[in-house]
Amino acid sequence: MPDTNPTGSVLAALPLLLLAQPAMAAEGPARQALIDADYQQGRTAFQQRCSACHTLAEDSANLFGPNLWEMMGRKAGVLEDFDEFSDAMRESGITWSPATLMAFISDPMGFIPGNTMMIPEPVPERDRVPMISFIMLETGAADWPRPESAMVQDAGVAPGAPVSERFPSFWNHLMSNTTRYRLVTEEQEFIFEAYFNTDGSVDTNLERARGFWHIDESDMFCYAIYELPIRPAQFVECFPVGAMAIPRFNPELWRSRPAEGMELWGGITVGRP
Ligand code: HEC
Questions:
Q1: Percent above pLDDT 90 for the chain
Q2: Is the CB of 128 under 6 A from ligand 1?
Q3: Counting atoms of ligand 1 from 1, which one is nearest the CA of 50?
Q4: How far away, in angstroms, is 268 Cα from ligand 1 center?
Q5: What is the CATH number that goes with domain 163-269?
Q6: What is the layout of strands, in order, in the sheet containing 201-204?
Q7: pLDDT at res. 242
């Protein structure tokens, strides 16, 4: 006779409800707050705090951290292309959602003790919801339309302006320094240098190898390098210009699999010979 004791059945269900939601991840941002969030604020926060290590767009390279395309709904630490996950991340049992991402950026070490993502400080509270909203819009997780402000470029620069004006730090960094590659195939490891030129060409320190680059309407930077003295003899790679918004020098800044059987480590070193 279940109807005679409604209180009892509610109480019996309570432990189940509590078990279903890990306490720390329970406080996710409300859907409406994500929809209403300031896109530009989220973008700026992501560029300043995350983009040195993560790309968002589909098929973009892994940097120091994994590409985050379609991360929502995926288990932590399972992305196949990225082999640098810590055991802590892989064994965390977390599935990414607005709530778990909120918990992670609020306290990366507290939420997943022992993970290897080093950020100098938690994301400030005021930036969290805009950042999650921005990440969802850019990783194919938002079921609401892109805000009009997404089309607006960085303040004060016209959307149609050349890349050199819209992304001056990226431009100066790539066009005046050396890009260093370490390509690893089953047979060998091969290191060479490339020099991106403002006219769309790419030179290298090798006898024949050269290439070209192009930036498309959605600010994806794509380039090809060919006639390499190894097999495969060429590769193509694309990444969002925004991923290079913060100029950094390191011989190994990003990692990707640009061709079958080839792993690439890319980095930027100071100046050109
Ligand atoms: C210094 C480089 C670096 C920065 C900056 C950085 N991350 Fe990470 N991120 C990593 C690394 C490395 C991992 C893998 C950590 C591990 O496996 O323990 C990671 C993992 C992640 C994951 C888990 C991905 C998955 O597939 O499970 C998410 C989500 C994430 N980062 C989001 C962010 C956000 C949001 C920011 C900005 C607030 C940020 N990261 C800043 C390096 C970075």
A1: 47
A2: no
A3: 37
A4: 21
A5: 2.40.128
A6: 235-240, 220-226, 210-215, 201-204, 189-196, 178-185, 262-269, 250-259
A7: 72
